[in-house]
Design a protein that fits this description.
This protein is of the alpha+beta class. The protein folds into two domains: 23-72 and 173-310, no CATH class; 79-166, 2-Layer Sandwich (Alpha-Beta Plaits). It has helices spanning 12-37, 39-72, 89-100, 113-122, 126-132, 149-157, 169-211, 213-221, 226-269, 281-310; strands spanning 79-83, 105-111, 140-145, 162-166. The longest helix has 44 residues, at 226-269. Mean pLDDT is 77; it is low at 1-14.
């Protein structure tokens, strides 16, 4: 039998770190077991949390697609500059080149009177065009601004070659205002429903704590630290949050798939190729991570409150 005095010296700090890691691994596995042990209760809790998370996320997704759609529909920002009838094709082409060199203009497209006439014929106005006789259409410049449409419209209207400048800045301003309002509503809903999800997971963990009150009391009297007691419940809350976040992403993805085809058909009727976009992988991962952190936080608040109430006192 080896003499204890000749045994290799142990590093207490290394032993403490190893114990801490072992307990984390044990808490991770044990909390997963408790999470799966009561499937009906787990499904109800996760379902409520998922719906609470899906509502603001769904609104945020709709607003993102609406903003992308308004950006894709360039007519909402483009300015139509109808040149005077006296401006010939060569001058119209030169003017388009000059405008492309300006810093406040992103793109300039020139449509000649002949191109405009062909477009009208393709739209079904061939008989009306034939009755008119000579081509009455002027040259048209379609200008896509980089900045403020109103300022650019005023500048273009001052050009000597310009006859009429058309743009719908008021529609754009109203749309931007509604998008900002919708974004604020999404933030308020996220805060309220996120608080609701935190309370749901907190109440679920509280019930689990109550069922293990005697076990926790024994650990406290044996000198277990609050962190040691709290750890399994933190992981349990994290499991609830992770499952709820993943379910919320799954529900919204299924909803996007169900709506994608009819929305694409509707957009095509307006000459647009808009497609409903779902969550990207980084965004989905961020949502799941945030939901996991929310579950961890809810469990931490409830467990900390319980431990403060039941901490043994010296007599």
């Amino acid at each position: 039998m080896r003499d204890a005095g000749n045994s290799p010296a142990r590093d207490p700090r290394r032993s403490g770190v190893g114990t801490w890691i072992d307990h984390h691994l044990y808490s991770f596995a044990a909390s997963l077991g408790r999470f799966l042990r009561r499937p009906w209760s787990t499904v109800l809790t996760v379902g409520v949390m998922a719906v609470a998370l899906a509502l603001p996320l769904g609104l945020w997704l709709v607003l993102g697609n609406l903003a992308r759609f308004s950006g894709d529909v360039q007519q909402s920002r483009q300015l139509s500059v109808f040149l005077k009838p006296a401006v010939d094709g060569a001058r119209a082409q030169a003017l388009a080149v000059e405008l492309r060199g300006r810093n406040d203009i992103g793109k300039v497209e020139l449509r000649t009177p002949e191109q405009g006439l062909e477009q009208l014929r393709a739209s079904g106005f061939g008989d009306a065009i034939a009755a008119v006789g000579a081509n009455p259409l002027p040259s048209l410049l379609i200008v896509t601004p980089k900045g403020d449409e109103a300022l650019l419209a005023t500048s273009l209207q001052a050009l000597p070659e310009a006859d009429i400048v058309q743009h719908d800045a008021l529609w754009r301003q109203r749309l931007d205002g509604w998008l900002r309002f919708g974004g604020r509503v999404a933030l308020v809903l996220a805060a309220l429903l996120g608080l609701g999800a935190l309370l749901v997971v907190g109440n679920t963990v509280r019930l689990d704590i109550q069922s293990r009150r005697e076990e926790i009391g024994v650990l406290q009297h044996l000198g277990a630290t609050d962190g040691f007691i709290r750890r399994p419940f933190l992981y349990l809350g994290a499991w609830y949050g992770l499952a709820a976040g993943a379910l919320a992403i799954g529900l919204l993805t299924l909803a996007a798939i169900a709506l994608r085809a009819p929305l694409a058909e509707l957009a095509s009727s307006y000459g647009s190729r808009f497609m409903l976009a779902g969550f990207t992988l980084p965004v989905a991962a961020a949502v799941v991570a945030g939901a996991t952190a929310l579950g961890w936080l809810g469990a931490g608040v409830v467990t900390g409150h319980f431990l403060r109430q039941t901490r043994p006192t010296d007599t």
